[in-house]
Specification:
Radius of gyration: 34 Å
Shape: elongated
Largest sheet: 4 strands, antiparallel
Low-confidence stretches: none
Order of helices and strands: HHEHEEEEEEH
Number of strands: 7
Length: 196
């Protein structure tokens, strides 16, 4: 069997006729040379098993039928959010702090790096000009810092969850800055930062 007979025009046309889904009996003459393919009918929706459309009814998850949202749907700290409060938002700066020793600095024995994932504390410095220490109200939740003074209001969503019971705040009256240090509370910190 020679290769010229395999790749001849008539053999390719007969192969194209075999690959067609439904043979058409059009004898226009100009469509006979072009092979037809059934792949053009495929769309991304036709890939995979046929999906049945189901209509589901809305189910209320809350025990109280008068509530609009579940407690899981409301973001944490939104109870403090007040967009109509005319007080100014003070300038603030967030920095991260980690406790390192000589084994970290010189030898890299504990595997800490300079990223925020290896930091133990969040330090927030808030500029409060013309404010006295007695005028400051500070409330700390797991992911929210709420600061209120007669002239300023700051609702800050924290980048990491913190231990709200272990924190320090000090007011530097000469610089008019409130410095808040909060311990970061991550799920696997007992593995990353174990003592010993």
């Amino acid at each position: 069997m020679d290769l010229d007979s395999v790749f001849s025009g008539s053999s390719l046309q007969s192969l194209a006729k075999l690959l067609r889904d439904a043979p058409e009996e059009d004898d226009d003459g100009d469509d006979d040379d072009v092979p037809r393919c059934s792949v053009g009918a495929m769309t991304p929706g036709s890939v995979g098993p046929v999906k049945k459309e189901t209509t589901s009814t809305f189910q209320v998850k809350s025990e109280n039928k008068k509530t609009i949202w579940d407690t899981e749907e409301v973001p944490e700290g939104s109870e403090f959010d007040d967009t109509w409060d005319p007080r100014e938002k003070p300038e603030y700066e967030i920095s991260f702090k980690q406790h390192v020793g000589t084994e970290d600095v010189f030898f890299g024995m504990t595997g800490k790096d300079p990223s925020t994932a290896c930091c133990e504390d969040i330090v927030i410095k808030i500029k409060l000009p013309e404010t006295k220490y007695s005028d400051i109200t500070l409330d700390i939740q797991d992911k929210v810092l709420d600061l209120r003074t007669p002239k300023n209001k700051l609702l800050l969503h924290l980048p990491y969850p913190v231990n709200s019971k272990e924190g320090r705040a000090r007011f530097l009256s000469e610089e008019e800055i409130l410095e808040v240090t909060l311990r970061v509370s991550r799920k696997l910190d007992f593995i990353n930062f174990s003592d010993g």
